[in-house]
């Protein structure tokens, strides 16, 4: 039996239809009876197509003697797939004909030319993919709407951005009120996703008619599409290793953010922030920055320690991360003299991180305790920050300039590898200038931070360290969590980000 195979991925005016392909192939059959196999709406990047698989099955059954296609790329655009198919044809004695390219697979030259054409077919597919990817990232960096499901709390409307027609989000107040409620509920110290789910179900609140789930609630609490992004949000993502495409001076506490998976990132987008991309969006945010950050940081901690669970190993649980990959350092016990070690969870689980080196848990806890004591010397009485958005506005300008300097210094460092002697002199001179400015700005920010704050006495935290040894692990964890935002550690370096 002669088999004719036709495929069309997209029905466009400039693409040849499956009917036209079949007519051209019938000419090569010279009037002999044929059976047609047609896949419409399927890409040539792989062979997972129903009619193609039916053709392969008939070949293995021995009922096909010749396969005719209009062009090679109708079969596949992958060299590996096509090579495997040629092995199958040879095994079952099937002749292969391309009506538009006139290949004779019975001769060595014909098979060689066939393989050459397949190389260019795959090159064309990969080139198209690269163009599409480049266009996607280019448009996304400029804040254009890139499609996808419209997030709860928004509606879609037509707009013009940079002289080009696009779409953007507009706030749906009824849904936005529910989003704010979700964040307010989760901001409570002991609240969990399950608590929010229970509240939603009890009050008959749904997500556009569908019941809420823990996974959906977590997704909404992590999404920066809702935040009124200010400099605190910029600093948070920068510390997490996110690539921020927008300039820091544009983070004024009004707009939400688009968040995309990075070109080289292999992590889940919302679970791991490193190497992913953040772009300031043209729409207005829904959730205040301080509330969004409080919930987002809590979500990060939930990856390693669940709310309400008693800590049994170390009071640093959930606070200390690997300085290399930013995954949690977890405590492991061994039958050695030191017994307790902090180990990178990513190295343990997937072997994709070199690890943080040898960190003895007892020594590390003692080190962090000493750092806390040193930090508290300047703060005999601590105050919980009542309203982060009310910080001294005088810090905004130096923080913006400091962020610009850091970006410029990173760009200069990237050029060092390819720089000649003359360019290196210019780079070194510019780096020295930037370092001087950086020092001045850091002193300015330090002076602003030294201004005393007046917070109601009910929010005071005091006398904890005097009875440190009498506290339980959970109480120590509460104290540490009120003082420390995150710790990045290796056996060589320790970086502590403080909340005070």
Description:
It is a single chain. The protein is α/β, with parallel strands linked by helices and 500 residues long. It has four domains: 2-139, Rossmann fold (3-Layer(aba) Sandwich); 154-302, Alpha-Beta Complex (Hect, E3 ligase catalytic domain fold); 304-386 and 453-500, no CATH class; 393-450. The protein contains 14 helices and 17 strands. It has a four-stranded parallel beta sheet with strand order 2-1-3-4, with helices on both faces. The protein has a three-stranded mixed beta sheet with strand order 7-9-8, with helices on one face. Strands 10-16-17 form a three-stranded mixed beta sheet. β1 (2-8), α1 (18-29) and β2 (34-40) form a beta-alpha-beta unit.
What key phrases describe this protein's structure?
Rossmann fold, alpha/beta, 4 domains, 17% strand, 500 residues, four-stranded parallel β-sheet, 14 helices
